[in-house]
Amino acid sequence: MAPIATTTTTQPEPDNKVKNAHAKEDVYTSGNPDLAFPSETPTGPPQFSDPYEQRAYLKHRLALAFRVFAKFDFCDGVAGHITLRDPVDPTSFWVNPFGMHFSLITDDDLILVNHDGKVIEGGRNRLLNYAAFAIHSEIHAARPDVLCAAHSHSLHGRAFCATGRKLQMLTQDHCVFHNDHALYPNFAGVVLAAEEGKHIAATFGSKKAILLGNHGLLTAGQTIEEVVFWFQLLDRCCHIQLEADASAAGSGVPLVEIGEVEARSTWEALGRSGNGYFMALPIFQLAELEFGERTFLGRGV
């Protein structure tokens, strides 16, 4: 069961949201993106004055994240990992033990890995997937803003990553990744070298997602919830892209892409960190049921 927060975040909101709505009409023909969510919408998790309480809360959210991945069938053998930067020691991260199905993971099963790749805390199974360390340690090192990163060998993600290209802006959901996903086209085998992890992190840059050529998807962000939401949405967008490509090839009619201005305004409405956090909450509500919990909006408090 998740601990009770001692304090909760005061969520940042755009100033003069409604006042500025009319001022932006000339720029955004579909309306002001700031109005996509009510001003009182939570855009991040509760905060704790005690880092150990925050650790306990976040570990439980990570366990829920693995249940969500299991529901989406993102567990493929022993492949896949989600990492969480430790709030007590930010140079270390929590990750799933190697060889455990996502649907079975609890808070106590998670293992803590330090910057040298040594498991320093965890449950009975303390096996580390070294590929998880090789990739995620470099991302966490290069991106201080990243609390969480997720990678899995999802079906549609793997299929699209074999095409060697980035997503086209075909639907509203695709626009969440407008100018916000990267392509790493070089597949050099299983990532077991720190240098390869550095190359991936460098290509990733400051974006929320990266397509690993001939490999799969990876997402990262400031909250566990947004990272999970971006990942499942990206896999769906890959699926849609593949279906649309097949349709266009069969009919000979080219795909219709969303324009630059429209794609940008849609990203501004839906593609920010706080948007991803809130849009993830319904699937975390379902995951909570597996632990016999039901918290307000699925926020864990």
Write a concise keyword list for the protein shown above.
301 residues; 8 strands; 38% helix
General description of the model:
- By secondary structure, the protein is α+β, with helices and mostly antiparallel strands.
- It is built from eight helices and eight strands, in the order ααββββαβαβαββααα.
- Strands 4-3-2-1-5-8-7-6 form an eight-stranded mixed beta sheet, with helices on both faces.
- Helix 4 packs across helix 6 and helix 6 crosses helix 8 (about 275-290).
- The termini are close together.
- About 40% of the residues are buried.
- The model is unreliable at about 5-25 (pLDDT under 50).
Largest sheet: 8 strands, mixed
Point out poorly predicted stretches.
6-24
Average pLDDT for all residues: 92
Q: Cα distance, first to last residue?
A: 10 Å
> Total strand count, please?
8
Order of helices and strands: HHEEEEHEHEHEEHHH
Residue fraction in strands:
5-15%
Number of helices: 8
| Helical residue percent band | 25-40%
